């Protein structure tokens, strides 16, 4: 079985690994790099708990091969905080009670931080559409939307 | 879930990808966006000894109008189509459909080439391509083109040979007084259609239908082209009664199977309703009444 030497920049640090073809990106992140902030939820590309930002785009890391990320830049939830300061979306989720159990939160944070990179002033509809691939089974999204609006205001 | 073991090959050029496909024959599968293939491999509904990744092949990602043809590269991501001004302004049938495909995260990876080449009747773009009268450009030992309405042979069975790659989609630029629409009923974001209808019309000088393309998604083992309904419309004024009759004819062509999305009767009825709605929308967009 062919092994592949890959190199990725994850949260600003270059990391190398030797991976099997079938290793999924989420497993590279969690099990090889031991960064467990990214969650495995449904494992079928529905729930979005495993969302990471890959070369600027939020994607479901359970549905990308690790070897496909070779040479790419990845941001995970661990990379949002900068110099001990929470990212505005993290602050928003704290301030507006955007989570209960917290399982979907890493994915929500990655999708919404990427949204705010692209759109500084999203409407409620645009926020809801952006998170339509991230499922939350506790809060019912109302506070998540408020958290993103809070972050958007903070970032403007 | 972990896929069965396979060997991954990253092609850096189209020729390299074709060489790999030729070498590994039936054991190889092209990996484009992977949004259908990887879940299938993980669920072990499919397995291939070799995956040939064409994500890094340059020159397969573009949307451009040239000499009366809209050319879309096979590796164009759904997200790029969603943001494209050309699509938004001139191809409402696609602009309707793309935001309804899967979810935004999946659309960041998923490609139009994968969507049309996959051969899953639940994919939305095959019916749209049939309605638009599109042609697929296929590269193997040599290049050939296949009309969208000749491409689908059965469930996951298309005119594409294992040694070939679909590289481009060509859509005739719609003439003046054209309009299209895609109407889709789905239970929730991320689900396939319960039923969906793709319609592309061109109206003549006096408002009668000059050309019509109608096709249905998830209404059988392949996308269903409603040839009779389209023929019926040509030469007629697209009024309420004519549209109702055409929608009925289209639904009669559908052959859905019962599943958790509904019974056969329900799905056929939805195909009728959605076709009528798409026809109304398309007529309106074509500047008819």
Characterise this structure.
The complex is a heterodimer of chains A (156) and B (289). Chain A has five helices and five strands; from the N terminus they run ββαβββαααα. Chain A is an alpha+beta fold. Chain A folds into two domains: 76 residues, Ubiquitin-like (UB roll) (Roll), CATH 3.10.20.30; 68 residues, DNA polymerase, domain 1, CATH 1.10.150.120. Chain A has a five-stranded mixed β-sheet, sandwiched between helices. In chain A, α2 packs across α5 and α3 crosses α5. Chain A is globular and about 50 Å long. Chain B is α+β, with helices and mostly antiparallel strands and 289 residues long. Chain B has three domains: 46 residues, 2-Layer Sandwich (Uridine Diphospho-n-acetylenolpyruvylglucosamine Reductase, domain 2), CATH 3.30.43; 110 residues, Uridine Diphospho-n-acetylenolpyruvylglucosamine Reductase, domain 3; 106 residues, Enolase-like, domain 1, CATH 3.30.390.50. Chain B contains twelve helices and 14 strands. In chain B, strands 4-5-10-6-7 form a five-stranded antiparallel β-sheet. A four-stranded antiparallel β-sheet of chain B has the order 11-12-13-14. In chain B, α11 packs across α12. The radius of gyration of chain B is 19 Å and the shape is globular. The chains are: A alpha+beta (156), B alpha+beta (289). At the A-B interface, β4 of A face β1, α2 and α6 of B.
Brief summary of the model shown:
The complex is a heterodimer of chains A (about 160) and B (about 290). By secondary structure, chain A is α+β, with helices and mostly antiparallel strands. Chain A has 5 helices and 5 strands, in the order ββαβββαααα.
Low-confidence stretches of chain A: none
Total domains of chain B: 3
Quickly give the structural class of chain B: alpha+beta
Radius of gyration over C-alpha positions of chain B, nearest whole angstrom = 19 Å
**Main β sheet profile of chain A:** 5 strands, mixed
Please state the CA-atom Rg of chain A, rounded to the nearest Å: 15 Å
The chain-level structural class of chain A is: alpha+beta
CATH superfamily of the largest domain in chain A: Beta-grasp domain
Distance between the termini of chain A: 50 Å
Q: Tell the overall outline of chain B.
A: globular
Show unreliable segments of chain B.
Answer: none
Number of domains of chain A: 2
Name the quaternary structure.
Answer: heterodimer
Strand order within the widest beta sheet of chain B: 4-5-10-6-7
- What is the fold-level CATH name, i.e. the topology of the largest domain in chain A? Ubiquitin-like (UB roll)
Which architecture name of the largest domain in chain B does CATH use?
2-Layer Sandwich
